[in-house]
Amino acid sequence: MLFLLLILVSATNALTLYVILRNNSDTPFDKVIRYAVLVSLVHSVYALCARYYFADSPFIDSGVPFGLLYGPILYFLAFSNDEKRPSRKNILLHLGPFLLVTIVYIVFLVKAEVLQNFSLPYFIILYSGKVLSMVLYVSYLFLNQKKMIADGRLRKLINSGATWLLLIASLFASLIFSKVFQKEEMGALFPGVILYGVMLFVSLLIFKYCIDSLLQYSKTEEALSDDDLQMTKKQYQKSALTPEILREYEQKLNEMMEKEQIFLDTELSLESLSRKVKIPKHHLTQLFNMTINQTFYQYINSYRVSYSCQLLLDEPETNLEEIAFKSGFNSKVTFNRYFKNLMECTPSEYRQS
């Protein structure tokens, strides 16, 4: 059972990492997601090797300090939601306990006699530290989540991770009690099925989020390539629409965009745009391809990016997630992609500059 769980966790993390790389997003939030999945993958592979190649040395698995990483990762996920990039000093501050305990862990692996003399204090400090870290980070997140996380989908993902982290913290607390007061062996007690079952569930949540983000981007990226545009132009060369009619259409469309700002409608589609401007859909398609030289999504999102630039300057305290929705984007991923493509910087970098 445990072997199967570890295989599933490792496979899910590996697949998620592949999806993240396919998504090719370099926003701070997606970078933290990438590191979180990588940590979980290394943890599950390490546990798999430790439990089945070093079964006679339970300390190799039960003494590893990976648990000290998950609280900081949860914090950085929430922190990076607003495109913020933590400083190196901030990163070292939060990862300091893990790095320090890792050094001690390596010393114990090398010096078996030291482990025999200090194993009990090490386990008490390690697992107490894991419990304290998880509880403090989760408490901070729950108290500040509305301020830190505007997107309901991201909030649901992070809150799910936080809830399961509390479950693991309670598990570790019971291990400390058993170790100190009942003198049980940690290796024999360590309930790996529960721990790695939780890891599998959280890994599946992250995998679903990454798949949804990839599909969302693919859906909004219904833009044609340059070759496709050229091919479409050839198809329209024999069209009955004269250049004068196309110019009238373009003027009418631009006026609607500038005066009525219909691009702010997050549900705007080619069909609904056709109804709003009273231009047949196939005429609009020809207008985009023959005169404007942009696809529908490129044209609409250029207005949205321009509008968001003004919001970023006029509303310095507004969360970037809210800026995206106010500008007409229906996801932060799409907002970041189009913004960086057109402005050659991220929204946060634009605001700071």
Automatic annotation (TrEMBL):
Q: Which residues cross the membrane?
A: 62-79, 91-110, 122-143, 164-182, 188-211
HTH araC/xylS-type domain: residues covered: 247-353
| Keyword Cell cycle tagged | no
Q: Does the keyword Membrane apply?
A: yes
| Superkingdom of source | Bacteria
What InterPro entries does the entry give? Homeodomain-like_sf (IPR009057), HTH_AraC (IPR018060), HTH_AraC-typ_CS (IPR018062)
Kindly state which keywords UniProt assigns to this record, in alphabetical order: DNA-binding, Membrane, Transcription, Transcription regulation, Transmembrane, Transmembrane helix
The record ties this protein, via Pfam families, to: HTH_18 (PF12833)
Q: Which PROSITE patterns match?
A: HTH_ARAC_FAMILY_1, HTH_ARAC_FAMILY_2
Name under which the protein is recorded: Helix-turn-helix domain-containing protein
